[in-house]
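Example record used in the benchmark description.
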Amino acid sequence: MTEDLFDKTICLLQESCNGVALTGAGVSTESGIPDFHGKNGLWSRFDPIEYGTLGAFIADPEKVWRMLAGLLDVVDAKPNKGHKALATLEQQGLLTGIITQNIDSLHQKGGSKNVVEFHGSLGTFSCLSCGDSYDLAFVHDNSLPPRCSSCGAILKPDIVFYDERIPDTVLTQTEQMLASADLLLVAGTSCRVQPAAHIPFTVLNRGGKIIEINKEPALKHIAAVILKGNFSTVMEKLAERLA
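Model output (C-alpha cells):
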C-alpha cells in the first residue's frame, strides 16, 4: 500500500456525502472467528447442504444444532481495532452506516450504531412452531438444543440459512441505506454470495465510488481504490490519518 492510495482513499471519504460500508467474514478473522469457507472454517467440518439449510433444520433440528452449538462461541469474540476504526468513521460522519454479512454483532460491540445485519444475528432465536422469540441469555441458561418454553419446539437462531430469503425488512433497510450512497467501503468479503454480492454494483450503477480493503481483492475491475492488507491494520491507519 502506497501513501498515494491512502491519500486518494481519504479524499474519497471526505468528499463523500453518504458513505456506507459493506463487510464480510474477513473483518472478524482477526477477532478469532475463522472464515466459514476457510481452512479451519465451519464448512470444513460440516457439509453446508446437510447442516446449513432451513430444510435441514426443519427435518432434523437436533442434528443441525450440533453445528450451531459451535457457532455460539462467536458471540464471545471481541471487536478488533478495525471494527473500532469503522465506528470512529461513523462518529466522524464519514460513514452513515454498515451493511454486514456477519452474524457476530462485532460492529455493534465496536461502537457502530447504524448496522444492517444482512444475514441475521446469533443474538436472538425464534420458535418456528408458535412464533415466540428469545434472546441469547435464554439459550445460554438452558441445555442445547434450546427449546421454546411455550410449546417445546427446538429454537432456530435468527440467521439466514442458505435456502432462506433475506427478510423483507432487511432488504428495505438495505435499500434505504443505499438509496443516496455515493461511496461504498467494501471490506473482508469476496462478494460472491448473492444477493449481497450485488450491492457494490448497485452503488456503482448509481454513480458511487468503491473502496476495497481486502487481503485478496475481489473488485479490481470496479474499485476506485484498493487497499490490500489486513482489515484492522488498514482501518486503524485510515482512522489515524483522518483524526
